[in-house]
């Protein structure tokens, strides 16, 4: 799959301005005659390249160092921690991720959505926690934080409603520079700033139809809107005014 992606990018660079038909291996499982999701395609591609990298290797655990290129670039790790409010015992669970999904139902900005994601959850009453130390059901506090941050951060805004697939109408603000340190497990360190590098936009009223285009920053800092065969220069103000579906950031 890595070779397939390299061949696809090479073809695109050799034929600037042309719409390049993806190679069959890149679109396996997708249908040309119906609407497909760009985020799903992105994850499919990353997982396929991840699988190719793992050929001959064991699947790494949450704490082990992942030898694959995809995890080294996009991979991070969540820490889910439950604290018993009676004995103060802690229980940690770690889960790897390639992207972060953000609920924007009631969030005016990406920062608000991140704050909601890591907001402590109180476990009490019928939802109390079975403490391994107390050996009893106890009230507890559950928190989700970033144990390990990736080199390249992918934030996915959940624009589409679960039941109907309709798109949320409100605008969600996102900054050019985003400090992720407030959402890390280890606090008290310096800022962890990610700078916007690319934005994927969905034009349409639901997940069942529409069109995708993107904004990408070149090496010289110039932003470009890429819409099929049409590529035009733009500025950061134009980029930040979009309703981003997927944003890609680098440190």
UniProtKB/TrEMBL annotation:
Keywords: Hydrolase, Protease, Thiol protease, Ubl conjugation pathway. One of its GO terms (cellular component) is cytosol. One of its GO terms (biological process) is proteolysis. One of its GO terms (molecular function) is cysteine-type deubiquitinase activity. Its EC number is 3.4.19.12. It comes from the Eukaryota. It catalyses: Thiol-dependent hydrolysis of ester, thioester, amide, peptide and isopeptide bonds formed by the C-terminal Gly of ubiquitin (a 76-residue protein attached to proteins as an intracellular targeting signal). Residues 1-251 form the USP domain. This is ubiquitinyl hydrolase 1. It comes from Marmota monax.
């Amino acid at each position: 799959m890595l070779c397939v992606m390299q061949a696809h990018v090479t073809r695109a660079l050799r034929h600037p301005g042309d719409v390049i038909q993806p190679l069959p291996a890149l679109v396996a499982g997708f249908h040309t005659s119906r609407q497909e999701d760009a985020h799903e395609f992105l994850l499919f591609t990353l997982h396929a390249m991840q699988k190719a990298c793992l050929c001959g290797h064991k699947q790494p655990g949450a704490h082990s160092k992942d030898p694959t290129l995809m995890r080294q670039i996009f991979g991070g790790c969540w820490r889910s921690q439950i604290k018993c409010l009676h004995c103060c015992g802690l229980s940690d669970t770690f889960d790897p991720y390639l992207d972060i999904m953000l609920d924007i139902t009631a969030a005016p900005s990406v920062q608000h959505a991140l704050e909601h994601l890591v907001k402590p959850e109180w476990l009490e009453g019928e939802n109390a926690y079975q403490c391994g130390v107390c050996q009893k059901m106890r009230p507890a506090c559950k928190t989700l934080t970033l144990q390990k941050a990736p080199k390249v951060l992918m934030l996915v805004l959940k624009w589409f409603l679960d039941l109907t697939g309709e798109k949320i109408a409100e605008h969600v603000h996102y900054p050019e520079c985003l400090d992720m340190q407030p959402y890390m497990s280890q606090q008290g360190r310096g800022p962890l700033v990610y700078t916007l590098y690319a934005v994927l936009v969905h034009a349409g009223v639901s997940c069942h139809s529409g069109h995708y285009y993107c904004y990408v920053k070149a090496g010289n800092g110039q932003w470009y809107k890429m819409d099929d065969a049409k590529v035009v220069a733009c500025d950061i103000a134009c980029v930040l005014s979009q309703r981003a579906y997927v944003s890609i950031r680098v440190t």
